[in-house]
Structures are given as structure tokens and as C-alpha cells.
Amino acid sequence: MLPPANDVFLTEVIRNGLASVAEEMTLTVQRSARSPALREAGDLSSAITDGDGNLIAQGRDLPIHLGVMASAVKALIGRVGKASLLPGDVWIVNLPQASGNHLPDVKVMRPVFCGGEVAAFAISLAHWADIGGGSPGSYNIAATDLWQEGLQIPPIRIMRQDTIVADVLSLIIANVRGAEERQGDLFAQIAAVRTGERRIIEIIDRFGAANFGAAMRDMLDLSERQIRSVIEAIPDGTYSGEDYLDGTAETGPVRIAVDITINGGEAVFDFSRSDNALAAPVNTTPSVVAAGVDYFLKAIAGERLYPTGAALRPVRIVTRAGSVLDPASSEPVVAGNHETSNRVVDAIMNAMSPAIAEQLCAGGCGSAGLTIFSGRGPRGNWWTFYETHGGGSGATAERPGNSATRIHLGNMMNTPAEFIEAEYPIEVVRSAVRGESGGAGRNRGGDGLIREYRVLADEVRFTATFERRLTAPRGLAGGEAGLPFRISLVRDGACTELPSLWHGSLKRDDVILVESAGGGGYGAA
Amino acid sequence: MTWRLGVDTGGTFTDVIALEDDTGECRVTKLWSDGDDIAGMIDAAIAALGIAPARVASITYGTTKITNAIVENKLACVAFIATHGFKDILRIARQKRDFLYNLTAPHRAPPPVLERNCFEVDERCSHAGTIVKAVDEAAVAALVHEISPECEVAAISFLHAYANGANEKIVAAILGRRFSHISMSHEVSPEAREYERSITTVLNAAMLPLIRGLVASLERMSVPTSRLWFFHSAGGLISPELAARRPLALAMSGPAAGALAAATVARDLGISHAVGVDMGGTTTDCSLIVAGQAALAAEIRIGSVPIRQPTIAVQSIGAGGGSVVGYSHGRLTVGPESMGARPGPACYLRGGTTPTLTDAAAVLGFFGEAADLTRPVAVDIAAARQAFADLAEALRTPVEAVALGTIKLASSSASRAIKTVTMSGGVDARSCVLIAFGGAGPMFAAFIAQEIGLRDIIVPDRSSGLSAVGCLAADPLMTRQWTVRLGMEAATSDAMAQIAGECLSSLRWDFDLIGAGAAPAEESFVGLLRYPGQSYEIEVPIELPFSSDRVTADFQRLHDAAYGFTSSDPWELVALRISIKARSPGFAAAAKSIAACGAELPPTRACFDGSNWAETKQYRRERLSEDAIVVGPAIILDETSTIVVPPEFTAVAQGPHLRLRRLPAESEPAEMATRERRLEHVAAGE
Q1: Helix segments in B131-238, DSSP class H
Q2: Around Cβ B593, how many Cβ atoms within 10 Å?
């Protein structure tokens, strides 16, 4: 039953307005943030939820962020209760159990009040370049528990009655590297959510609270209906799939498994068969698992979808406590956010491929391919250069895979070689497509990427965090796998392959060779 | 009597305006944008204006040809020459995909150069501009033989060439034996970011055969091409000779002409902040005007392709008068598909049957009815209603309500584009005056203003063909931006004199190609400054000889105005933007004589709330006197546009322009009081 046309148009008009608000929040952070990860690579996201924490509107940001932001607000409401939320407050959180993913992604939330009730939330998520812990940049690959990964912030107020809580601020800033940059980034996020609040109230004033509430319910209902119809199109039954993390030398490959039961317009995603949690930072949280399921459903629904939090209404997600996807709150998680999360999507795709292969793509690079170079500058200050590396995407029934791209939950840009060379003691020797790395098939997988970095300083610290080194991206419907991911150290003419989690020192003229994974092919060649 | 002509080609109509500078006499005409014969079209326009070709002193042409060729991927075959190790940068781009949620769509548009036509030269320049590895000329000479005969043009883009173009020049000299068309990155876009600079250079090269063909075809005009100017994206004029070397400078030619004309109107009326809204048949182009100048952007995107060169900041959306109203998957949309010039909106009776935004206006009676008015196209209301019939049926809603919803939805899309352009400039859209033009702008301006929450609208004189007016108002101008990267300490007066001198001499060489001749040239410098770590730069005017103290003071003042704080940190100069400009006569049309007040037409009926029809006064624009106040609902008509004044608006003449003003809502306090009750209603409904 369709609502009257006036209301249908009004929902679209309010949706346009809220999307503008989310975009303005992202721009606000980018304009005044001081760290390169936020300004150049765009490692941040903005969103608006309704008063219950259901995601309503988002910027064109990163799916992993957008997926976890919705659970961050619900966790805030669950932990502190709606009665504790007051006008003029801003909440901050990064605790994985309460905010979704990992410590560097700091969420700042502002409840928006209308007539004494919480009508909406404005949220800003930004990846802080450092959150403390055992290594600069807070990618402590040796971490065996969460405390070694950095400062944990449960949901607390960073602003009360529109005044910064100075004690909280100074405690946070004292525990992270790069005090000035971090404070600049935090203030940028606070400015963004306060702007968001002002704009949301303007929209409520303009259209009336009743219409605003009705439009939000419309958007949620519409996206639920769209997702239900997507699930209904899949034949009923139970579908099982797995994929593997590389693991450590001690653990060997780590299984991520899912059993999906489709029943009409509803679905259960049960990840209980996944392996146990590790004492290594590739564990992740049920929120990240939910973000993976949410992404999968939205991606098969396509571009016309209203991407709201109601996509998960017809879905139940099960994780097993103690597993790599539902670890104890003490376990390390930093890399799980971009590595394990993508294995969740891959396991789902592998499960669904017998039923709907033609709507899917083969496996892709699916790793952030993170490298971090850091060292001391001439005046003793730390410099840190982060880079993530895209790779090949999987082929589909209709087309070959794409080369040198980002898939699924990530969508970070690269950093121009001309910026790297101007700002850090690093030469970019080569930036190329890794030819013939895509899997063969009726349609070939996309090719990965090659980047070669030469160190131009005497001592540089280096961290590599990547996956797909041991388990290559799969082919689909008879296509072959792509080439696996490889990061090597070339020193004095000798080339050594590095493990998936590696930290060490580099010397002048050492070369780091990054060769990212190719995508899988589709169909027999 | 000699005439200057401005010609602006849009997706649906071509507007032509002719000005006689001595008398200020002005003539206009409007043609359908059909066909590719531009010389023939210009000749037809000259004939329609009743001007002898010998009397045409100059023609300024704003064109969408270059934009369309890029959008439609009609590019010449390019050989791309990169630094060793970097020939794949066009394929890698910035490694992100263009969307978030889609498993099967291609992630990005394919690169504009085939893989087999990408080549490498073993050379290296440092970011400081030192040649680290010289070009091996013999190797390049050998490379020439490897390049396929299919390549028509060459583009050279070496790492850090913005800092030193010597290696590019050496390679270009050798390639010159094989190619007559070569673009070098240090000339086209001397800025850091290898992908953006390379693709900009490649697109420039890929447009060279097209522009040269276009210039050659214009020689068939009855007016010599020596009297021809092109309007370029940075808001000025260039000669055909220079356009033939820098075709990409025309990438936003048409929209930039509109923004420049709106800026001229803002300057004349002393408006400090304005947004230009140019609504045509297929798109709406929004621009920001601050202190009488259209804001510039360092980079624009056409589709998802970045073009790195100074361009008037225009945010375009695919919603114009001809945009199609669609309903699928439970969502209503306006655009981006457009019915264009053919078959056009249903109400124009050119064969269209699909509902468009223009049809929505026709349904609501917004075109008015005036028997004595000659319009370029007749409007058939029954055809418009018929076009909406299926949609109204599907939604079980009256046609009028669907039509009004369509207009509100299109207005909300336009207001989103306006907010994007104002946010980028750090300006609150509500503090701006909306300058509405283009064929459809004045009809929908009041709805857009309501959507944004701004009060004042200016509908300029000749609003329908304002971009063509912009062509006449512009000056010969060259603008380019160089990456500089200079710390405050290093930016001494001597260092700045040297850098500015080098940039200026290369720009002057181009400017001489404009052939501005005896007209005195003005040179201006803008520094892009920031605190270390920031990503957004503040534009600070720079005068030579350079004074660090003065620039520091200006930077701090402007930074405080933009962000509300300053710091004691030293600034850094990221880039230098230089313009050279000559003076042209500008646009000074004679004032039109105004007939006596009270020349009202018989009233018509229009629907502003989606259900009730109200008696609506009608006026002829050219008969409105300075002291007449039009109170909405009203429709003001002229030969090429229709200005809709909804019930809560008034309109008054302001010089040759028209000002619409929204009345403050009477019910505002009452609405605040009822908000709590409404929220209870929301809560109860859950």
C-alpha cells in the first residue's frame, strides 16, 4: 500500500536534506583536521541516525565505518540509557565492544533533541593516526591483548552543556602520540557533530517533527522492503561457505565460516563454525560481522537502495562467544577491522555462489595491504607514513575484474608518489599494475598492484599488515584464483618475503616491494 | 554601427545576444541546439538578428563541445609517455571505486589511453626540481618507432615535472618528428599529484584534433575567425589559436560564462554573497559569487574524471526543465535523464510523452497565458497533464499534487548542489542572494529559495540568455596555478621574485597567443597558503615586491574569517595562481524604456499547493515600472522566460533586474509551540 504522493516526495526531499548534512559533516572534519590520513586519504565517515540509533543517512564514505556507526549509537543507548543523554553533550567512544571495530576509529556522537526527546544522533568517525599503545601509528602487530593496542575510551562525555570537559580531554591527549594533531582532529569531529545537530534541527523546524519522524520511518521501512525482496529472490535453503585468514606461524590459517539459512524474506547468518580467537590482532567484533552482512545485502540490492540501518531487520546474525568473530573484550583487534571483515564478506559470497553466482563477483584482493613507515625527523619528531594498497577485483558473469582498485568494505585512496617523496625520506621507484596476476577464466580477474619504495634515511621502522598471502582470492563458477598478496624486503640484492604481520627496522637503500593480490576469474576459461 | 556577439550553446537551446557598444542597443535570439554545423548556426543567428556580417566586430563563443566529447568518450587516440615505472598511473588512478554498494558494475571508467599506447622514458626529476636522471635521447628516438600509427597525438607527463619541465621538453622535441599535436604536463597543469596532472594532460591532448577541426570549420563562417573568441573555464576569453593548444581550457566553457554573468550582476547590485543558479533543459549549474567574483576551484570533475586546472567552481546536477520524472523501486526521481531538445517535454509537442519538470510547471499553470506574447515554443497543458496521468494513477494522487511534488523534489536536488558549492567556499547558503537564470531558472527559483531558506532572489535582465551576456562581459584572460611548496622562512622577497618571474614568463608567452594586442594587460597573483598539516588552503592576494609581513597579516585575517582561529605557526605557500588579463568593453546595454505602471494582463489561474487553484495576476516584465510591487501569487512573463512569484513572495523591479523576496513566515512562533505536541505524536506512533 503506497502512502499518499505528497508524503513519498517529502521523504525524498528530507532524505536529500539529511544527505547534505552528512556531507557537510565530512567536509567540516576534512577542512579543519590536522592529520594526513583524514585530509588526503579520507579515512573518516559521517552519519545520522534516528533517536533509537537506526542509521538514516550517510556521506559517500567507507562502508566499514558506516556499518559500525549504527551499532555505536545503539551501544551508547544500551550502556548509558536514554535518560543520561542531555542536550549540549557530546559523547566519545572507541572501545571495540561498545563502538564496533578498533581503537583508532574514534566515534564522536551528539544527541539531537526536539521537544525534550532525542530525535536523532549526529556521528563522526575518524581514524586517528595514533591512539597510543605499543607502536607509533597504533598498529601493534605483536599485541597479544587489547591494552597493548592503545587507549580504550568507553562511552563518556567529552562535552557537557556545550563546554569541553577539560579533564577528559587532557587524559585522552596525554595517552596518544602527536598531541597537537590529535586534539585538532578531535575538535574537528566535535565541530562536525555540532554542525550536524544544527542542520538536523533546521530540517525538523522546516518540515515539522511529525513529518520528520514519519520520513525517517518511511526510509527505514522502504529499505527493509527492498532488502526483503532481495532475500526473497534467493531460493530457500541453507548455504555454507568458508574463507581463511593467513593466521600466524603458530596458528596456521584461521577459518571464517558461515551457514546462511534463507526462509522467504528472512535470513539467518550463523558464523558459529569460525575458529577460536587468536592472541594476535586479527580478531574482530560482532559489529564488524554485522557490517559485513549489511554490506553484502546492500551490494546485491544495488544502487537504488536506501542504505539505512533497517537493511538488517529481516536478518539474524549469530556469532559464537570466544571465536575470532566474537572474542573476549580483552583480545587484540586492530587489523580485524579491514582484514577479517573482508573475509566475512568472502565467506558469505562463497556460501551464496551456488545459488546466485551470476549476481556475485569472484574473490578479490580483500586486504587493506597496510604499510607503515616511521622514523625520527631532523628535530627528533616522529614522522609516520601510512599507505594502503588496493588490488584486483573478482570477475563477474558479465565482465572481467577491475585492476588496482578497492573492494567491499574499504574504499581508501592512494597517496600520490609526488606527495610521498616531498614529505618523507622515501623514493617511490615504481607504481604499476601487476600484470597477469588476475585469475584466468571466461572473464579474467582484475590485476593487483605493484609499488616499490626505497628508503632514503638511515633508520626507518616498518610495519606490514596484510592478508591473502597464503589463501589466494578464489575464482567463481569455474574461474581460477588470482595471485596471492606478497610484500618483500629487498636488501643488498637479496629478496625476502615478509609474513602477513611484520614489524622491523629498515636501512638506507632497502626496498619494500608490495605486490597485491589479483582477483579471481569467472567461468572456465 | 558595429556589433559584438555572444553565443552560448546549451544542451537544448543556443542563446545569441548582440550588443552595439556605442548606442547600447541589444538584440537577442534563441535557436534550438540541433546539429553540428556551428558555422551555419552562427550565420543563421546573425541573419536572424538582422545584422550584416561585415558589421560584426567580434563573436565570443561558449561551447559544450569539449565537455560532451569527454562525457561521451569521443577522444583522439593518445600515446602517453611517463617516467620509468609509472606508465600505469592512468589505470591505477586513485585506486578507489566510484560507488559503495554494487558487486557487478565496473569500478571506474576505463582510462582514456589504451594500455598498448602507454610508454616509459628512463628519466627522473626530484620534488625540488633537480634533474636526477637525464633523458637518453637515443633511447627516446628509438621509442618513437615503437609507437603505433593509430596514435594521433602524444601526452608527456613525468614525475615532478611541475617543478622542472626540462625533461618533458627534450622528449617533446624528439617526438615532434612524429606528432604535430603534443601536450606536456608542466604546461597544461603544473601541479603536484601525478595522476591528476597526467590525466589532465592526456585529455588536453585527446581534444586537440577536435578543437582544431572546430576552429577550421568556423572558417566557413561569414565572419572571419580573427574576430572570434572562445569563453574558457576560468572565466575569460582566449583566441582560437590558444584554444587550439589548450582545448581543455574550454571544458566548462558554458557554465563558467553563466557564473561570470551572474557575478557581473552581483557586482552591479553590490551583493556580497550570491549563488548563481543556471537551470537549463538538461542540467542545473550552481556557482558561488563572493564580492562580485565567481569562486574558482583548483580541480573539477567531469563524470568521475578529475581535471586539474583553475576553473570557475560550478556544481552541476542532472536536473533541468527537460529532466524526466521517474518512479521505480518505490522511489521518485527527477533526472538525470533528460528529454533534451528532441523529443523534449510533452507540453512542447515535439514528440515527447514522458513527464518532465517543465510539464509539471505546465500542469500547475506556471506558464501563464498571454495571447499577445510570442514565445519560441507553445505550451500545451493538456499534453503535460496526459504525460503525468500514468504516474498520478500509480500513486493514486491528483496530477497537481504529483506535479508540485516533482518541483519540490527537483528544488531539493538543486539546493543540495548549491549547498555543496557554498560549503566548499565556507559560506552559509542562507546568507546568499540567489541569482536565477537559464531558461528554467526564474520559474523554479522561488521553490529553490524556500528549500534552502534564503530570502532574496534576483532574476537578471535577459535571464534566459545570461550565459551569452557573460560571453560579452568577459575579458581576455589567462589563469594558471603552479605547485610551489615554500615555507614562510624560505619565501623571501628575492625567492618570490624569481619564482613569480619564471611562472609569469611562461604565462605571458601563452597570453601573447591570445592576440589581445594593444589592450593594457593586468597581472595578478594569488598565493594558496595554509598551516602545516592542513589540507585546505587560504587564497591570499600577493603583490610584488613580496612582503612576508603583509602576507602573514593577510593570511591570519583571512584564516580567522574562514575558520574562526589563527595560530602562531609559520604558514607555507603551497601554490601560486597567476592571471593575466586585458580589458574589453564589457557589457553596457542601454536602459530599456519602461511603459507606464499598471499594464497588467488579464489574470490566470495557477496551483501552488498541489490541490487548490488560485487566481494569479499576470504581468509583462518589460512593462513593470520601478515603483510597482508585485504581490504573489503572480506570473511575470517575457518573451523567453517565465518568472513565478508564489503566494508568499513579492517582486519589484531593481534597475533592469527583478528582485523577488520571500515574506517572513507569520506562523513561525506558533509552529515552535506546537513542536512538542508533534513529537508526542511521533512517540505515540512508535
Answers
A1: 137-146, 166-175, 185-188, 194-218
A2: 6
In a domain, B661, yes or no: no
Residues of A in contact with B102 (CB under 8 A): 299, 302-303
Strands, E assignment, B202-343? 228-232, 236-238, 273-279, 284-290, 293-294, 296-302, 305-312, 314-317, 323-328, 331-338
pLDDT digits (tens, 9 = 90+) for B304-322: 789 999 999 998 888 888 8
Segment B557-609, tens digit of pLDDT:
888 777 667 778 889 999 999 988 887 777 776 665 444 444 568 889 999 99
Q: Which domain holds residue B90?
A: 77-180
Per-residue H/E/C for B255-278:
HHHHHHHHHHHHHHHCCCEEEEEE
- Tell me how far apart the 2 most distant CA atoms of chain A are, in Å: 73
DSSP designation for B595: P
* Under 8 Å between Cβ of A150 and A96: no
Q: Write the secondary structure of B483-513 as one string of H (helix), E (strand) and C (coil).
A: EEEEECCCCCHHHHHHHHHHHHHHHHHHHHH
What does the pLDDT read at residue B514?
Answer: 66
Per DSSP, the three-state class of B421 is: helix
Give the end of a domain, one of B526, B560, B582: B582
ipTM score here?
0.92
Closest chain B residue to A402 measured between Cα atoms? Answer: B107
CA dist., res. B323 & res. B335, Å (int): 5
Name the phi and psi angles at A354, rounded to 5: -65, -30
Q: How many structural domains are present in chain B?
A: 2
The residues, any chain, with a CB within 8 Å of residue A311's CB and separated by 6 or more, are A223, A224, A227, A294, A297, A298, A301, A305
C-alpha cell at A280: 594476535
Sheet with A501-507, side-by-side order of all strands: A382-387, A370-376, A459-465, A501-507
Cell of B582: 586585458
CA A86 – CA A118 distance, rounded (Å): 9
Q: CB–CB of B535 and A40 under 8 A?
A: yes
Show the cell assigned to B330: 518505490
Contact B678 A299 (CB under 8 A): no
What 3-state class would DSSP assign to A150? coil
Cα distance between residue A444 and residue A520, in whole Å: 7
Distance between CA A443 and CA A523 in Å, rounded?
7
Instruction: Output the CA torsion sign for B99, B100, B106, B111.
Output: positive
Grid cell, residue A140, equals: 601493534
The residue from B117, B147, B180 where one domain ends is: B180
Q: Is residue B148 part of a domain?
A: yes
Query: Which sign, positive or negative, has the C-alpha torsion A175, A180, A181, A187?
Result: positive
B128 part of a folded domain = yes
B460-503 pLDDT, tens digit each: 988 888 888 888 888 888 888 898 889 999 989 999 999 898 88
- Through-space distance between the first and last CA atoms of chain A, rounded to whole angstroms: 48
Using CA of residue A79, residue A80, residue A82, residue A83, what is the dihedral sign? positive
Contact A299 B92 (CB under 8 A): no
DSSP letter string over B569-594?
Answer: SPPEEEEEEEEEEE------PPPPP-
What are the residue boundaries of the structural domains of chain A, listed by start? 5-223, 361-525
Asked whether residue B622 is domain-assigned, the answer is no
Compare CB distances from B94 to A66, A226, A414 and report the shortest one's residue: A414
Chain A residues whose CB is inside 8 A of the B410 CB are: none
**Cis previous bond, B633, omega within 30:** yes
Of residues B576, B644, B587, B582, the one with CA closest to residue B616: B644
Contact A28, A375 (CB under 8 A): no
At B418, give phi and psi (nearest 5°): -65, -40
A32 CB neighbours in chain B (<8 A) are 534, 563
Q: Which residues pair with B182 in a beta bridge?
A: B154
